[in-house]
Amino acid sequence: MGQSRTHRLDSLDATHDLGARLGGALGPGDVVLLTGDLGAGKTTLARAVIAKMCGIEDAPSPTYTLVQIYDTADGGELWHADLYRIEEASELEELGLEDAFDFAVCLIEWPDRLGDALPPDRLEILLTGGGTGLESGREARITGFGRWEERLDHI
């Protein structure tokens, strides 16, 4: 099933802090799945990770490009994917995400579109609560699977 932790996100700064901690714990081959309703803060959290790992403060959302690839400070790659517009499994093959799972840090929004392609070693973050935008009452439930079960304390 996986090990879980819940983090309160009472402000935008709290979301950025979580993203920075997460970015400090990620390395090649780490897959992070970001779930939650539209406007839950998935892209905001991903941008905080990208800022920490790649030094890019205002990364664009990959809503229309589907994948944005960044160089990390340590010479690796970070792939930020938004699968909201994916309708068929064949579209996933064209993106090359499954290959990237082996060598890149992967942040994936709308991971339900992956279907059977979920990697066994992954970190799932469910963003819930609040209303529109980031405000008090929001939470991030973080669940580690595989090797992530023992790494949750580093976030």
CATH class: Alpha Beta
Mean pLDDT: 90
Biggest pleated sheet: 7 strands, mixed
What count of domains describes the coordinates? 1
Described by the principal axes of the CA atoms, the overall outline is globular
Termini Cα gap: 19 Å
Concise overview:
With 155 residues, the protein is α/β, with parallel strands linked by helices.
Structural summary, described in words:
By secondary structure, the chain is an alpha/beta fold. The protein has one domain: P-loop containing nucleotide triphosphate hydrolases (Rossmann fold, 3-Layer(aba) Sandwich). 26% of the residues lie in helices and 28% in strands. It contains four helices and seven strands; from the N terminus they run βαβαββααβββ. The protein has helices at residues 12-25, 42-54, 89-95, 97-103; strands at 3-9, 31-35, 67-71, 77-82, 105-109, 122-128, 138-145. A seven-stranded mixed beta sheet has the order 1-7-6-2-5-4-3, with helices on both faces. Strand 3 and strand 4 form a beta hairpin. Helix 1 (12-25) crosses helix 2 (42-54). The chain is globular, with a radius of gyration of 14 Å. The model has no long low-confidence stretch (mean pLDDT 90).
Structural features:
seven-stranded mixed β-sheet; globular; Rossmann fold; alpha/beta; 155 residues
Topology:
Elements: E1 3-9, H1 12-25, E2 31-35, H2 42-54, E3 67-71, E4 77-82, H3 89-95, H4 97-103, E5 105-109, E6 122-128, E7 138-145
Parallel strand pairs: 2-5, 2-6, 4-5
Antiparallel strand pairs: 1-7, 3-4, 6-7
Helix pairs in contact: 1-2
